[in-house]
Amino acid sequence: MNFYVMTLFPEMIEQGSRSSILGRAAKNGILSLKAVNIRDYTEDKHGKVDDYPYGGGAGMLMQAQPVYDCFLAVRDKIELDRGKDAGSKTKVIYLTPQGKTFHQEMAQEFAKEEDIIFLCGHYEGVDERVLEEIVTDYVSIGDYVLTGGELGALVMIDAIARLVPGVLNNEVSADIETFHNDLLEYPQYSRPERWHGKEVPPVLLSGAHKKIEKWRLEQSEIRTEKMRPDLYEKYRRRKNMAEKLVRENKALYADMSESLYRGRGILVYDGEDGAIILDKEAEVYMLAAFCEDAAEKIVGLIPEKSDVSQFILHQEVFLPPMERRYRLKEKMECRRAVYNQDVPAPMSKRTDVVLLDISYLEEIAAHYHLGSREYIKERLLQGCIFGAFIEGRLAGFSGEHIEGSLGMLEVFPEYRRQGVAQDLEAFMINFHLSKGYLPYGDIIVGNEASLGLQRKLGLKISKETFYWANIEK
Length: 473
Ligand code: ADE
Prior knowledge:
The protein is an alpha+beta fold. The protein has helices spanning 10-16, 20-27, 64-82, 84-89, 104-110, 128-134, 150-161, 209-227, 229-249, 254-261, 295-300, 319-325, 361-367, 373-381, 420-434, 448-456, and strands at 2-7, 32-37, 50-51, 61-62, 91-101, 115-120, 137-140, 194-195, 198-199, 265-270, 274-279, 284-289, 310-313, 328-338, 352-355, 385-390, 393-400, 406-411, 440-444, 460-461, 466-471. It folds into four domains: 2-161, Alpha/beta knot, CATH 3.40.1280.10; 180-227, Orthogonal Bundle (Trp Operon Repressor, Chain A), CATH 1.10.1270; 236-336; 352-437, Aminopeptidase. Adenine binds at residues 95-97, 140-142, 144-146, 149, 152.
């Protein structure tokens, strides 16, 4: 990911970017951070970049020309590095107290970008005309006024960078920390066991991982309810809905409950009669109707302004209202398989299953036909595809789909009927169990071979079917 900061004070950015984590990520080529001096682009002989505001008023204003030319130079560099399309799509964030207040979900959205340009204002602001031409997002870091945007840009860069895969490396992964799942972090303790007469809570010394996890969750809940009742209310609603989905039909709604439990689902609607969850990572709406006549109303509750084109419809009764509201391009009927046990699935000793890196893109694309090359590339880069090796040769692969289900299972013809599929699937199940997930997969109706494999591994298959649907946008 590349950050470009357009500023009159590049040294502020350079100073602030040398922290150990950002510095290491930059060294490893995961990130780059470049401060670009707006003054270098002024056409004024004396290097002037500001002037008085028309109509009078206090202070000076940054002029349009240097800011615009600086922006063109940055955009040209992005286009040179990544192609024309990239330059025109790049987010340009103007730091201003008038913008939307920055928060964790915004950081997660920005972390998906390849390039971000920040514009830092100074003096009394920037000529409105250049803002209109180049800015895509107006962001504030809080309800107070700073002397310029640089500290705001650094705050945003820090929060965004730590979410970029590979940046945190061996440190605790970002997805179990504060604000994911709407909970604040639990209290932590280090040596010594007794300090100022205070003991470390005994459960943390017990070595019982399940108990420790439970205690930590309870502490997070207590802390959040006390310190941030607003966040706690959000958390409580998500948790209640996740529990309701499990009670209603654990297998059928595994995608929805897991999307909430894994901290990636936004509750768009949570009623007695049904639910709408937007899975942020996969950009898919998941719809459930707990009574038949709720379907029409629930479809009507999908936000008008939405770029999302994929849906998981958990009841057939959704199809008519969906067809009335949208043009359905394709739909696929599936059953859901869930692994309801907490003991690991058994694996043979014949195969070695290991994470595949991007160098396997061509080999996988040649064998997997239910997703585009772009999709496979994204899954590989996210560390979601694993390969089974027999005597050092790749025999097949399996992975985690973008919405969190297990799938993408392929065994190369010469290795079939040797238990490779079973090993791959068992490995993926155990991988998800180790993360505290409920392992599940979607099986296209009619795929008897896959159903057979799921049953053999002890997965429960939903009686009900549901639909993956794509709408025309
Ligand atoms: N520039 C000045 N104040 C700011 C704030 N609160 N957030 C972002 N940029 C700013």
